[in-house]
Amino acid sequence: MNDAALAEAGPARRRRLALLAIFASVLSFSISLGGLVPWMALSLEARGTEEAVIGIVCAANPFGVMLAAPLVPRLLRRVGTADAILGGIFVSVVTIALLPLFDSVAGWLILRLVSGLAASVPWVVTETWINVVAGDRSRARVIALYGTIMAVGFTTGPVVLTVTGAEGPAAVLCFAALNASALVPIFLVRRLAPIVSHAESPRLSGIALAMPAILAAAFLSGAVDTAFFGFLPIWGMRAGLDETFAVTLLSVFVAGNVLLQLPLGWLADVLGYRPVMLVCGLASILGPILTLETIELPIVLCVVMFVWGGMLWGTYTIGLAALGQRFRNGPLAAANAAFVMVYTLANITGPPLAGLAIAAWDPHGLIVLMLGFAVAFTGLVLWRSVTRRDG
């Protein structure tokens, strides 16, 4: 659609077009990211790289996101919404395309760090844009659809890798192309991007004090999801489950991520954000308890994992929707940056903590750690509810 046609479209249609473009871009970007991480791990392992070094290289991307996220609101005010997203994606594409040209671990480490610095921009700005155009009446459902699409993308990435194969440059070039395709829909609707206010954004410390429960939701979802991707099959096998079933449990957990977001979003729009966040927290407490109780009941265990996965990822989507209600415009971008920064901090710290937990109590330390995270989050949500504060 050309600029003239966009200008003539009504507000509702412009809103739908913007969301459609954003979701298409997010899907391409998340498929690329979801497949690139296991490709890198497999490629480094094939070279004989030590496991600890592989972990450091894979952590470079979220570390870059965490470092750059607080700077995104300032960049957004300088270059504008659409240009910030396009620039961030373009740099990310270049860093991915360069990976086959570098054989050294140090080269990959630098490229992934730069990619993370760049990727923080479309991540923060896209979520801010979605929250701006979502509207209060259907905000949680729109954010839930975004969370569903992102989860689908992360799940599809490894499937793409099985098609391309991990050997040779085909896989990484495919992921670079997917990343590049994320530019197209944003470019087409760039005129619909909201203008972020040039008002002074709140400090990170002020945001943390204003919405600790929402930031805790980001940490809980980031820590549990990444820890489970690395350690859930290991826990299952050490607990006596068949290897195939242990891997299947992870797929069931991810299926809950994908399929339960829209129902949770609908409930949040009807009942409010805090009650649904509290339900997600309580379910995340029951999840690990019931997992240990039903380990010898495969069907029941699958049901537990499905619900736990959906409720766990629901803390991210409902928390993000709560941000849009709590903040507006420039402060929203700063709050979203803090949300992403905490999530990626959890991405980095979750797996090492999970490894230490399993070492301390083999194999159930992983499940106990997840229970501890959930209890802390739910307690914080309850405290904020009692004190009648937003966030």
Domain count, please report it. Answer: 2
The CATH homologous superfamily of the largest domain corresponds to: MFS general substrate transporter like domains
Q: Helical content, roughly?
A: over 70%
Output mean pLDDT. 88
Q: Could you explain the architecture of this structure?
A:
With 391 residues, this protein is mainly alpha-helical. It folds into 2 domains: 3-192, Up-down Bundle (Growth Hormone, Chain: A); 204-386, Growth Hormone, Chain: A (Up-down Bundle), CATH 1.20.1250. It is 83% helix and 0% strand. It contains 17 helices and no strands. The mean pLDDT is 88.
Layout of secondary structure:
Layout: H1 3-8, H2 11-46, H3 51-68, H4 72-79, H5 81-98, H6 105-134, H7 139-164, H8 170-181, H9 183-188, H10 204-210, H11 212-238, H12 243-259, H13 261-271, H14 273-293, H15 298-326, H16 329-360, H17 365-386
Q: What is this entry, summarized?
A:
This protein has 391 residues and is mainly alpha-helical. It has helices at 3-8, 11-46, 51-68, 72-79, 81-98, 105-134, 139-164, 170-181, 183-188, 204-210, 212-238, 243-259, 261-271, 273-293, 298-326, 329-360, 365-386.
Features:
391 residues; globular; single chain; Growth Hormone, Chain: A; mainly alpha; 2 domains; 17 helices
